[in-house]
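Reopening this one. Same input as before:
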Amino acid sequence: MSEMSGMDKYKFRRALEHVEEAVGRGTELVSVYVPPGRPISDVTNYLRGELSQSSNIKSASTRKHVTQAIESSMQRLKSYRMPPPNGLVVFTGHKQIGADQTEMVAFVLEPPEPVTSFLYRCDSKFYTAPLHEMLTEKDLYGLLVIDWSEATLGMLRGKRIEVIKNLQSQVPSKHRMGGQSARRFERGHDIAVHEWYKKIGELLTEAFLSQADLSGIIIGGPGYSKEEFATGEYVHHELKKKILPTFLDTGYTDEYGLRELVEKSREILSGLDLMREKSLVQRLMEEIRKADGGLAAYGEDQVRHALQLGAVETLLISEGLRKSRLKLRCANGDWEGEKTVAEDGELPTCPKDGGALTVVENRDLIEDLTATAEGMGTSVELISKDSEEGQLLLRAFGGVAAILRYRVT
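Same output, byte for byte:
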């Protein structure tokens, strides 16, 4: 599967948000996961069986709602002869909209990764956990645990650890000797260690130099060997740039050591994207603090103007931004234009006569700004809310800011 872009992830997260807003009065919401290659006819037959079983539900209203949800799922599956390449997920059911009121909803999603197994679930909420798992980062990291006697090389993609190779060294153990023998042994030991490190460096190069999507290399081990190897001249210069600066202590240098290394690096890995985002917002703030205003714009109006001039180098948008860009028309036809409003907010009135406005088009603001930016060759960075800088972007600048190519007046 090709890696999802930031915007694809955003759109899918937004779709999941809409799904998760639905809450049933009881176990009335149906979730169906269809893996690729599973005949739609098999799924439909299974749902017919569930439809038959639903007649045993004691509550008349729950029985009616579950029946309608299953029938709605079957109806939507009729649009497919076979599942798409990654499978299909169908959510149907009655969501609660008031004390005694419900509304039928239906969502059909094509997931970003293949559905691994068929699943049918009826609950008070739609079951979305597998889809959230698909959105977790799948960056590739090289792994190495090493000491003088053993080394294990592996890789981490998402949560999957793959062992590439385990090697035993020929480095002799150090032990006490006296006089000339001690010095000769020490020299021989140092040469053996040097050759051992060279061999591991060559394996790293062979395994990772051609990996264009390699995000970093994590090195650990039980002693000083990890630092000695990583800081010496044993690793290809391009790969050396990828070595994470924190070396982790592990008790083992075998496959278990790799798992220990990954467990201890979770906090480091989770912070890498945040650090990149923090540096972007900090760069924005540096520009804003300059006496002449620097190469920065913030707030939707300023940023939109700079985008239209092609002056934006990097567009920063908060993932927490929840607004819509509306194309509006006055009821009497005197005015037509665009306005940004809070999601599900009240419509403004006509600026000419104060009359009612009709929505001609409704676009998500993040998608609207991103489309404009991409048309101008501007890079777009979606900034999470999980850092102080991310909160600053959302609260102080309305969730929209830009680093400029040149100043705009």
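So the earlier flakiness isn't reproducible anymore. For the record, The chain has three domains: 6-134, 140-174+191-269, 296-404.
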